[in-house]
């Protein structure tokens, strides 16, 4: 019911920057884009998918993983139905497939963003990020 499409991945050198985008082309009937809490996750080869950053419906709650805090910034533009992940000072350990995700859109407006993968119901196909050393 919810379609998410990531873009912006690529190859970058250590210390470089990338900005990922995730656009929602369709939401569930009866809901609007602003109803969804959204997040970014990543998965390196042979590893489990891990939390990167998340954003609440209002945009006021933006938790980050310890490894990305201070280097990555998540934001959302409800008018464009898009979230962004600005990634600075990239390191080889940041390499992997990056996925955006949306929850079910049933939380109340004051609910904080969620870092739990189990809370996300919809996923994009991913975009690859490779950081060369």
Present the secondary structure layout.
Layout: E1 3-7, E2 10-13, E3 18-26, E4 38-43, E5 50-55, E6 72-77, E7 82-87, E8 96-102, E9 122-123, E10 127-132
Parallel strand pairs: 2-10
Antiparallel strand pairs: 1-3, 3-7, 4-5, 4-8, 6-7, 8-9, 8-10
Describe the structure.
This protein has 133 residues and is mainly β. The chain has strands at residues 3-7, 10-13, 18-26, 38-43, 50-55, 72-77, 82-87, 96-102, 122-123, 127-132. The chain is globular, with a radius of gyration of 14 Å. The mean pLDDT is 96.
What's the short story on this structure?
This protein is mostly beta strands. The protein has strands at residues 3-7, 10-13, 18-26, 38-43, 50-55, 72-77, 82-87, 96-102, 122-123, 127-132.
Key traits:
single chain; mainly beta; six-stranded mixed β-sheet; 10 strands; 43% strand; globular
- Which term fits the overall shape? globular
Radius of gyration: 14 Å
Kindly state the percentage of residues in helix: under 10%
Number of helices: 0
Counting helices, strands and paired strands, the structural category is mainly beta
Q: Count of DSSP E strands? A: 10
* Assembly state: single chain
Would you tell me the overall average pLDDT?
Answer: 96
First-residue to last-residue Cα separation: 40 Å
Q: Quick one: biggest sheet? A: 6 strands, mixed
Spans of at least 5 consecutive residues whose pLDDT stays below 50 are none
Strand content: 35-45%
H and E order: EEEEEEEEEE
């Amino acid at each position: 019911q919810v379609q998410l499409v990531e873009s912006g991945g690529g190859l970058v050198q250590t210390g470089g920057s990338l900005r990922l985008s995730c656009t929602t082309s369709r939401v569930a009937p009866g809901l609007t884009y602003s109803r969804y809490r959204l997040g970014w996750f990543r998965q390196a080869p042979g590893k489990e998918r891990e939390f990167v950053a998340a954003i609440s419906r209002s945009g006021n709650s933006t938790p980050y993983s310890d490894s990305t805090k201070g280097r990555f910034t998540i934001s959302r533009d409800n008018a464009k139905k898009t979230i962004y992940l600005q990634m600075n000072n990239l390191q080889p350990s940041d390499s992997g497939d990056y996925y955006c995700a949306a929850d079910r859109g049933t939380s109340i407006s004051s609910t904080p963003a969620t870092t739990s993968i189990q809370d996300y119901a919809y996923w994009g196909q991913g975009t690859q990020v490779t950081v060369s050393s």
